[in-house]
Design goal:
Largest sheet: 6 strands, mixed
CATH class of the domain at 30-52 and 79-204 and 212-230: Alpha Beta
Oligomer: single chain
Strand order of the largest sheet: 6-7-8-3-9-10
Bound molecules: adenosine-5'-triphosphate
Helix content: 25-40%
Number of helices: 10
Length: about 250
Amino acid sequence: MSDFLHVDGLTAGYGQAVVLNDLTLSVNRGETLAILGRNGVGKTTLLETLMGNTAVKRGAIRWLGQDITRCNPADRARRGIGWVPQEREVFPSLTVQENLQVVALPGAWNVPRVFELFPRLLERRGNYGGQLSGGEQQMLAIGRALMTNPQLLLLDEPMEGLAPIIVEELAGAIRAMCQREGLTAIVVEQHPVLALSMSHQAIVLERGSIRYRGSSGDLSANPALLGELLGVASHRTTSPQPPAAH
Ligand SMILES: Nc1ncnc2c1ncn2[C@@H]1O[C@H](COP(=O)(O)OP(=O)(O)OP(=O)(O)O)[C@@H](O)[C@H]1O
């Protein structure tokens, strides 16, 4: 059990519908956890539940030693949980620089550091959010989340719908953010090889329950198991790089 984030026997869903069933998991500070699973198994719902956007029926979420199960999303954000939703949600009529500045909270992440992580955003700093490509919007969405200086970052399918070259660029930035800068993250990602290359630990969900948990290195070294768990042949979308030890 981790004092950083510990989810204990969590059963949650929407209204009366139960999506997550008796989930228990821990994340340690500095670790990246990949959430894998087929469509509709509850990956996004897990992130939504950590953020406080679903109905929790049973179980508890402990964050930095405190029970936050009943805290609302704004309170969780104030306590240091950052969220990059699938929809990105950048402000279209603010420039890149303004999008970053408007959410800034004190801490190690600031505009120059975000530009260092995403040089493309530096080139586009005077452009409006609405003028950016999908990939640039995703970089801005991650940059905005970093500007709130979270202790934990939740990323929901950050690569979805992006061209392979942008996927490579984003994956490199996420690895740098997590492995070089030591940020703790939970990443939902459809491409298993990519997800495993960015993470230390992985869980595979099946119908709202944990079917498998283990190190990402072990799982990526076992394509037969990965294929069995995900029901598809895992195809490589980027060169896997083992996460740095820490
Ligand atoms: N807002 C909602 N209200 C009611 N049911 C929902 C809502 N969002 C998701 N669901 C249902 O919860 C289940 C899990 O969906 P979820 O989006 O968490 O799965 P997922 O693993 O992230 O899928 P995908 O990979 O397709 O994004 C699905 O049956 C879905 O229809």
